[in-house]
Amino acid sequence: MVTAQTFVGLLPEIVVFLFSMLVLMIGVFSPRATGLTAGLAAFGALATFVTAVVLLAVGFEGSFFGDAYVVDGFALYFKLIVAGSAFFTVLAASRWSGRTGDAPEYLTLILSVAVGAMLLVSMRDLFGVFVAIELATIPSYALVAFDRTRRESAEGGMKYLLTGMIASSILLYGIVLIYGISGSAELADISRTFTGQLSPVALLGMVLLISGFAFKVSAAPFHFWTPDAYQGAPTSAAAFLSVAPKAAIFAVLLRIFLEGMPEAAPSWTAVAAVLAIVTMFIGNLFALRQSNVRRMLAYSSVAHSGYILVAFAALQGGGVERGVQAVLIYSAAYALMNLGAFFVIDLVGEEAKSYNGLFKTRPGVALSMAIFMAALVGIPPLSGFWGKAWIILAGAQSGSILTYVAVGALVINSVLSVPYYFGILRNMAFEEPVKGVEEPTGTGAVKLSVYILAIATTLFLFFIGPLSALAGASGLL
Amino acid sequence: MTALSAAFSLAPLLPLLVALLAAPAAMLAGTLKPRLAAPVGTAFAALAFLATAFTWYRGGGTVDLAWAPTWGMRFTIALDGLAALYALLATGIGFLVLAYSSRYLPLHLDQEGRPEAEGARFYGFMLLFMGAMVGLAMAQDLVLLFVFWDLTAVASYYLIAYDRHDPDARASALMALLVTGITAVLLLIGALTLYATYGTLSVPDLAGSVEPGVTLTVAGLLIACAALAKSAQVPFHFWLPRAMAAPTPVSAYLHSAAMVAAGVLLLGRVYPLLEKSQFLLDVLLVVGLLSISVGAILALTRDVLKQLLAYSTISQYGYVVFLYGLGGEYGAAGAAFYVVSHALAKCALFLTAGAITEETGEDRLSRLGGLTKRLPLLAVASGAAAAGLAALPFTIGFFKDELLFEAALERGGLFAALSVLGAALTIAYTWRFWGGLFLGEGRDGAGSLPAALVWPVAVLGGLVLLGGLFVEPFALLAEAAGAASYGAPTPIEPAYHLDLRPTNLMAVGAFALGIAIVASRPLWERGALAVSRFGEVLGPERLYEWGVDALNRLSDYVHRAEVRDLRSRVAAILLPAGVLVGAGILVTPTVGAYRTGEVMRGDFPLLLALVVVAVAALTTTFTRRHVTLALVLSGAGFVLALVYAFLGAPEVTLVAVLVETFLTLLFLGTSKLIPYKVLHDQAKLPLGNQWRRVFFSCLASLFAFAVAWSALSQPAAENTVAEEHVRLAPDAHAQDTVSAILADFRALDTLGEVTVVALVILGVATLLNRGRLP
How far apart are CA A157 and CA A164, in angstroms? Predict the structure, then answer.
């Protein structure tokens, strides 16, 4: 039954969708009002964020559309992440997109990705999951190809589109197999099939599903689209894509695993552990020798997907609760530090050389970048450290040898990542400034976002308490 | 009332707050006016020292902060004996070093031709270091400890690389960061291993609950590794001499009260856990002895002043580790006492070295000497410090060796003999340092050292002498620290005894042996140099360099393997998916999972259709003309639609035919838009590696086949939602089931699909726009 409750449950999505349409329409009818559209888009993202906060505050919970769509603490938490990163992205994008003249389309696409990602985290039905994932990915193809001034943009978009289609079809194949064997696509029904010894079809369905998801979260060896896409995409889009849809996809994967296949945990934790190990090593080894900061961050995002996958590998034994917490903490922490690091590219440039002597020439930006880099390494007390600490904690309690190996790999990889993150720090602190390497494109709004994100990254420690209380009520714990 | 008592209960946080505020305050002052950074920073260090002393005088205390209570996480910070000792050292020596820097740094920057404004950064990081040390000393919780631990590593990175144009300084900084950083992670893992077993990260709680066993040994070993690497103990010692690239005040601080002291601080903090395993104590013994000897022998061979001092630090902290390894009351309290007396002496000697290099421009022993006349005050002050390091009577150092001998005697004759030998070596290299600088032939003339480069040394030298006369305050502090580590009172009662007790005899033996070593230099010099050269060829530093190099080469190799063309990209998705599927098939039992049915006579048309599809698919691999390809593919599609019809699914057939028609028309229409020549040339491009492609195709089709076969062998679910949908369709007032599903049962999905389609259109429109470049 569709009742008023249903609309309340869908309110964050409705708000962001309405604003995205509004922005598009204004773009069509008065294309010169770029300031208006940017402001409306930012306001829409903020309103969505506030709506989700209100829903959390009043403790709204419920499941709709015959249990296919659920609103709980867990879902709302991730909606907050998505809406928050959409807000910062729109803020950072406003000036850039305003200059090229098709700001409304760009902003609408970003908000559409947000709609898809927010729907996704509430889905309890595999077909719904697929539709929501497509809703989040299809606009992102266009986002990647959006920058008409650069050839890489078109190339990255095209490659992303073609490989993304194949990955989607693999994912769909998996969903169909699972549907075929359980007779329903709802997680509650699926959990009844995934018990005891898995049949080959069930296992293949699961494996194909994981393969599809692995592509979406850019886990190695399905990650090849990532560097091209992030390098081609406008900076704000790359930042957003590396954070919001990814967090949502991890969230829904967590839901599928824990609600739909809890008894198959030995199988999927093993796959997650193997994928995590491969992903971390590939991400970091590729990032080591990058001289282009954007590409370095793309590979770093691959590595971070690997770290989060270790949390998935830890979802067994005594590590389940901590594992879920780890995904929650890591997603929020990663959103802050990675958005910030990407935005700095808009302010400074994408060649490592552009960062030379930044502490001297632009100390504020340099300090922020230093905070983001140190946080990405996982240096305490910055945000990234807490994510990693929670993952290691969860891994230590999981009681599985393979997970221990994955945790060991995480530790080794954290060390491997030091040289390339600190390389930026070194350039900023110790090199002499080089003039005229690149023209900075970002301005006021970007700088503001960078500063806010840097402060949040530094003070993340104090958010963990409230965040833990927020997510404590989540249905998954 | 409650607010007041709450404020009082937070009082032990005072030293930490002041120490943490110091860095931002100095940075802020530095940005306002570069000259302000030094006085503000020095004042804050003094303030932090006073705050620590005051809080300790008031009885210390513990603060327990709930942090993420729902997830069972707390912060515990306490000012106990151990914390007080190290916090006082960090702030007190910090104050002296900063006072020294206020004169030294401008000279240093001036020599390097750098602006004065860069000084602010120096004070910022020094004070950050100090704050981190105070936090590290007070942290009672392993994760919190780790936080401050890493903070010291970061601060040291910037301080060591402070002379940023010097590539050697940067390489050294990275080495220090990597060595202490990697081992810091071991600390975290050790802590979390304990957490996994005992459910707490608080050191006092752990001390109460740990049992000897494998968990404790492994965790203890990991934590000890981190501590030993930070204290530059063999085999992690190589980073410390390299870190001498830092400005001298940084070295002085690093060696006496900060970085290197942090390692033994950690040992003291987790000593209640370590002492439960004899194996761990033995490891400490062995590492301590190794470091004592390696450090001392290498110190005897070095010519550069700071290098000599660096190896002496390795050796001296070797004693501390050795004392912890010996264990017992004398071990725990003796170690604490040793740290204090070494800190005072070593800091003075480093500052001396810095002052002399400023005065003469030389940093090698072989080019220096006879400076007593030029720098009389410095000679006396550093002489006192050197006497303290060499453990001569009437200095605080005498007692440190007394305690060492006492603890070693308790353990046995061999250890007593070894400690006498070690003490003799210390005397030898200390003599080499001080005698080499101030005695012998030298240039005349009055020195021109600024007072600020001398008085900190004088204060430290004075403290060393004071400790030799009135040892009680230092002993009390060490006893309190020892009690915090040992868990019980540790009376050490250092005093002069004018009798022939064993410790006195050992001290006399050490002096005699020390003089003998100094006198017999020609005899052993060759041997010591050989040891040094052996270490350079086969030491752990080589391993580090090899590791860094190998990593770079591996990354280069991986980088070259990065695939960039589209076909490989697609293969890079299909191949791993195929591998995963194959692994899935391998791990599930296949018995009964794959069944074959019978082929009936009525199935022949179906088979024929399938053969046509297969032939069409094969044809696509041979033709390269785009139009042919499109037609063959659509042919396959139409025949597949026919197959659906045979299987009794007319609606699906209808949809398939529509889709195929639409796609074929679309394709042909598009190829009409592309100039014929482009298509034609495209078809003639060389194909590259054929066999690889055949391999990938076969693999992909094999896995598709396996998936399809296993799906068909599996009986379909008995109760499907579809049946229910069919049953409920009339209730939804729908003409047919499909529209009921679309519009009612799965309305949400339909809504989503519609949105997706809308977005596709928007996306395509945007993509098409790309063609028109501005």
Answer: 10
Q: pLDDT tens, position by position, for chain A (477 residues)?
A: 678 888 888 899 999 999 998 988 887 787 777 778 888 899 999 999 999 999 888 888 888 887 888 898 889 999 999 999 999 998 888 666 556 667 788 888 899 999 999 999 999 999 899 999 998 998 898 888 887 777 888 888 888 888 898 899 999 989 988 888 888 888 888 888 888 777 778 888 888 899 999 999 999 888 888 888 898 888 889 999 999 999 999 999 999 999 888 888 888 999 999 999 999 999 998 888 888 899 999 999 999 999 999 999 999 888 888 888 889 999 999 999 999 999 998 888 888 888 888 888 888 889 999 999 999 998 878 899 888 988 988 888 888 888 888 988 998 898 888 888 988 988 888 888 877 666 666 567 888 889 999 999 999 888 887 777 766 545 555
CB-based contact (8 Å) between A226 and chain B? no
Q: Which residues in B lie closer than 8 A to residue A375 (C-beta atoms)? A: none
Domain boundaries, chain A: 261-477
| Interface probe with B: pick from A23, A105, A204, A427, most Cβ of B within 10 Å | A204
B572/A contact by beta carbon, under 8 A: yes
Contact in structure between A341 and A372 (CB atoms under 8 Å): yes
Nearest residue on chain A to B772, alpha-carbon basis:
A148
Residue A384: list chain B partners with CB under 8 A.
Answer: none
| The three-state (H, E, C) secondary structure of A358-399, written as one string | HHHHCHHHHHHHHHHHHHHHCCCCCHHHHHHHHHHHHHHHHC
Buried/exposed B388-426: b ≥16 CB within 10 Å, e otherwise: bbbbbeebbbbbbbbbbbbbbbebeeebbebbbbbbbbb
Picking from A244, A184, A71, the residue whose alpha carbon sits closest to that of residue B725 is A184
Report which of B160, B327, B135, B148 is spatially closest to residue B232, judged by C-alpha positions: B160
Q: Where are the beta strands (DSSP E) in B104-172?
A: none
The ipTM value here is: 0.78
pLDDT in tens, B290-314: 999 889 888 888 888 888 899 999 9
User: Which residues of B, range 164-193, sit inside 8 Å of A by Cβ?
Assistant: 164-165, 170, 174, 177-178, 181-182, 185, 188-189, 192-193
Helix B259-269 to helix B142-160 angle (10° resolution) is 170
Establish if A431 touches chain B: CB-CB under 8 angstroms.
yes
d(CA B265, CA B267): 5
Give residues with Cβ within 8 angstroms of B59, minimum separation 6: none
Window B:699-758, CB contacts with A under 8 Å? 706-707, 710-711, 713-714, 716-722, 745-749, 752-753, 755-756
Q: Which of A69, A148, A208 sits opposite B581 (nearest CB)?
A: A208
Residue spans of the domains in chain B: they are 9-276, 603-714, 721-774
To the nearest whole Å, the CA of A84 is away from the closest chain B CA by: 22
Global pTM reads 0.80
Asked if B65 reaches chain A (Cβ–Cβ under 8 Å), the answer is no
Which chain B residues in 365-384 lie under 8 Å from chain A, judged by CB atoms? Answer: none
Residue recorded with tokens 């007779």: A183
Whether A138 sits inside 8 A of B71 (CB atoms) is no
